[in-house]
Amino acid sequence: CAGERAGEGAKRRGLMASSDADLLAQVRDAAMRLLARREHSREELRLKLVQRGFEISSIDPVLVELIEQDYLSDARYAQALVSHRSQGGYGPLYIRRELKERGVTADLIESAFAQADVSWDDVAKGRYQSRFSNQPVDSFKDWARRAAYMQRRGFGKSAIRRVLGDWQGRG
Q1: Cβ atoms within 10 A of the Cβ of 144, count?
Q2: Cβ atoms of 149 and 91 closer than 8 Å
């Protein structure tokens, strides 16, 4: 009876197919539903399909097909993520790390950054102003806290210094 229940669960999830073509169609439908919401990297989409119970042997041919049809593009995904994250106040270090974690190659990451029309100093200044308004820095501890916040948001030391300045103790 346990085997019957497992089979029923698979049917409910739509994972049992009468043929390989049906299974590939199910994988493709699931992938297209995910892509309809937003761009995905190849690795990110593969992971989501595995999490939905599909086998890699069924996923990979579908991903190849989606790439050939230009429904799936790591380059387009990288460009979209750079644009979206920079508008959200994230810096280049954060975005590069996120792209790398999602399986985008170094070449595509560099290309996305080269094509991006982003002033990282403006993004850093905007994020800093949004978070700290016009509150003056009153101690080294406060300066270090603000610098750490900017670093977590993906800005490098030089960008942080351009926004916060160097710590100038009151003497």
Answers
A1: 13
A2: no
